[in-house]
Amino acid sequence: MILKKNKKSPFAILRLYSIHASTQCYLHGRHPINHSKLLSGFMKSGDIINAERLFEEIPQRDVVSWSVMIHGYNRNGFQRKSMELFSQMRVSSLVPTSFTMVGVLVSVAGLGDPVLGRCVHGMILKNGLDHDFRVATALLNAYAKCGNVVDSYRVFGQLENPGLVSCSAIVSGFVYNDLFQEAVVLFNQFRRLSLVPNAATILTLIRACIKLGSRLLCESIHGIVVKISCVLDVAVNNSVLDMYSSMLDLDSATRIFEGMEFKDVISWTTMINLLVCLEHASDALVLFRHMRKTGISQDVVVAMNLISACSILGDLRRGREIHAQAIVNGFQSELPLKNSIIAMYSKCGDLDSSRTVFDQTNQKSLVSWTAMILGCVQNGYLRESLNLLIQMRGEETFRLDSVMLIGVLSACSELALLELCQQLHCHAFRAGFPQYRSVQNSLISAYSKCGDMEPAYNVFKEMIYIRDVVSWNAIINGYGINGHGEIAVTLFHEMRNGLENPDAATYLSVLNACSHSGLLEDGLVIFNQMVEGHTIRHSEDHCGCIVDLLARAGCLSDASEFVNRFMEKTGPNSWRALLNGCRLHGNVELAELAARMVYELDPGEPGQVILLSNVYASVERFQDAEALRAGMKKKELIKNPGISLINSVISHIG
Fold it and tell me: What are the strands, taking DSSP E only, across 367-496?
C-alpha cells in the first residue's frame, strides 16, 4: 500500500502510539474508550497502517467507526478503498448515517464515476437522507465532479432554503465543468438574495473571471473582495493578484502586491512570473532578492521563473548560479525545471551545458527533447538537431508536437532539405496540424527556402480562413527570394485590398523582392506608400532595400542622394548596397566614398575591402586591388567563408 508522507509533528504520532498501547487492554473490557477519536487521529496523521490495525481489533464496530475509516481513506487519497469499505459496512447490515453518506459522496467525487453517483443517490433516497442539508450539498458536488451538471443543478433546485455552502458548491460545480458564464449568472442571483460570499466562493468566482477574460468582471469581483473585507485573506489576495496577472496588468498587480500585509511564496511567485511574462527579467531578479530578504524560501516554481528570466537576458553567469541553487535546494530531480535549464543554456549559447543536463535526464519528456532540438537549431547546429530527432523517434514513443515540428522545419529550410520538408508536411497532415497556423506558416517558409514555390503556394491557398500577416509575409518573401518579384508585388496588393494590413516585415519582404527582380518603379511606389501612410516607421533595413534597388538599376547618384537624405535611418548595410552597385557599374569615386563610410560605421567587418578591391579590378586597377588585399592580410582581417550545399553536404568556400 502506498502511504502518504506524514506531515504532522512526530511527537503527536508518538502520543497516538502511547494512547493506543495503553488502551489495548480495554478493547474487550467494560470501559471502552472512544475508538473513533483514535482512528481519526491516525488517519489525520496519515498513519493508515495503524488505523487499519486498530479498526480490525475493535470487536463490535459501530457506524461511527466505519464512517471515520471511510472519511479517513478519502482524506489520504484512497477513494476506491473507501468505497470498498462502505460495501463491507453494508454487508454488516449497519444503516449509514448522513455523516457516512457525505464520506461516500466525497469518494464518488474523487473517482468521477457518474454511474456510481446515481447508485449512491438511490441509496440516499432509500434511507431518507435526501433532505439532509449536508448530504444534498455533497451530492450536488459529487454530480458536478462527475461531469453531470444537469443532475447537480436538479439536486440544488430541490433544496428548500439553500445556504451559502450549497450556493458556493453549485457555483464551484459550474466552474469545474467550464460553465463560467453560467457560474457568474448564478452568483449574481445569489447576491440578489442577500447572500454574502465567503473566501471559498470568491476563489471559485475569480477562476471563472480569469477564464472569461473580462476586465469588467475582474474589477467587479475585486470590488466585492474589498467590500466584504476579504483583503486580509492571503489566498484571496493571491487569487486577485493572479487575476490581474492573467490580464498582464502590471500596474494593478503591483498595487495589489504592495498592499498585501501578508505575503507567502505564492504571492512572490505570481509577481515574479508576471514580470517574466512581460520580459521584465531584470525586475524579476531584483524582486527575487527582496523575497530572499524576507526569509521566504524559494520553491521549484520560483526557480523555473528565474531560469526563464536568465534566458530572456541571455545571462549565462547568473543562470549557472540559479542552477547551482536549485541543486542545493534539492530541485535537481524536477523534470520541468530541468527542461527550463536545458532551454536556458541553449538560449545563452552554451550548448555543451545544455547537452550535459539533457544527457543526465533519465526520464525525458517530449518537452526535454523539444528544448534540446530547438537549442541546436537556434545555435546553428542543424544536422545535430535532425540527428536528435532521429534518436528520439528510435528511443521514445513521443509524437511530434507543433513546437518541435516548427523547429525541425526551420532546420530543414536552412539546409534546403526538400525531401525531408515533404515528409514533415505529410506528418503534419496526418497529425491534424493543417489548422495550426504557425505550422502552416513554417511550411510556407520551408518550401520557399528550398526553392519550391508550388507546394508553398498550395499551403498558403489552403489557409484561406486562418491566414494572418505572417502567412502573407512568408509567401511574399518566398516569391521574392526565388526571383518572382512580380508575383510578390501582386500578392502584396492583394493583401492590401483584403482584410490584412501589412506590417514592417511585409514592406521589407516586398521591397527585397523588388530589389532582386529589378522592379524599380514598383519598389519606389511601395516605399512612398509606406512613408506617406505614417502607420509604419521606415527602418534602416527598408532604406537599405531602396538603396540596393537604385544601385542595381544603375541610378547611383539617386542612391547616393537617398542615403544622404535618410542619413539617420541608414547604416553600414545601405552603404554596402551602394558599394555593390558601384562594383556592378564601375563607379570608382563613389565606391571609395561608400567603402570609407562602411569602415567608419563597421570597422571590424572586412567585406567592404573585398568589394572595393573588386571595383578596382573591374576597371583594371589591379595594383590598387592587390594593395587592399595585402592590407587585409597585414591587419589579419579574415572574411567569413561562404557556404555551399551540394548533395546535402556542407562545403565551405573561401
Answer: none
Question: Nearest 5°: phi and psi at 650?
Answer: -80, 125
In Å, how far are 176, 304, 368 from 104, measured between CA atoms?
A: 20, 39, 41
Q: Whose CA is closest to 200, among 258, 155, 137?
A: 137
What nine digits make up the cell of 159? 433544496
> Of 552, 545, 561, 546, nearest to 579 (Cα)?
552
Each as own residue / partner, the long-range contacts of residues 180-186 (CB below 8 Å, 24 or more positions apart, any chain) are 180/208, 180/209, 180/211, 180/212, 181/212, 183/208, 184/208, 184/209, 184/212, 184/217
Q: Following DSSP, what letter does each residue of 258-309 receive, concatenated?
A: HH-SS--HHHHHHHHHHHHHTT-HHHHHHHHHHHHHTTPPP-HHHHHHHHHH
Tell me the chain's radius of gyration from C-alpha atoms: 35
Backbone angles phi, psi at 2, to 5 degrees: -90, 125
Encode pLDDT of 580-632 as tens digits.
887 777 777 787 777 777 777 766 666 666 666 666 766 667 666 666 666 65
pTM of the model: 0.78
The answer to whether residues 621 and 588 touch, using CB atoms and an 8 Å cutoff, is: yes
Torsion of CA 609, 610, 615, 621, to 10 degrees: 80
Query: What is the distance in angstroms between the CA of the first residue and the CA of the last residue of the chain?
Result: 69
Concatenating the DSSP letter of every residue in 40-52 gives HHHHHTT-HHHHH
Return the half-sphere exposure (C-beta side, CA atoms, 13 A cut-off) of residue 400: 29
On whether the CB atoms of residues 437 and 466 are closer than 8 A, the answer is yes
Query: Range with the lowest mean pLDDT among 19-28, 360-369, 446-455, 588-597?
Result: 19-28
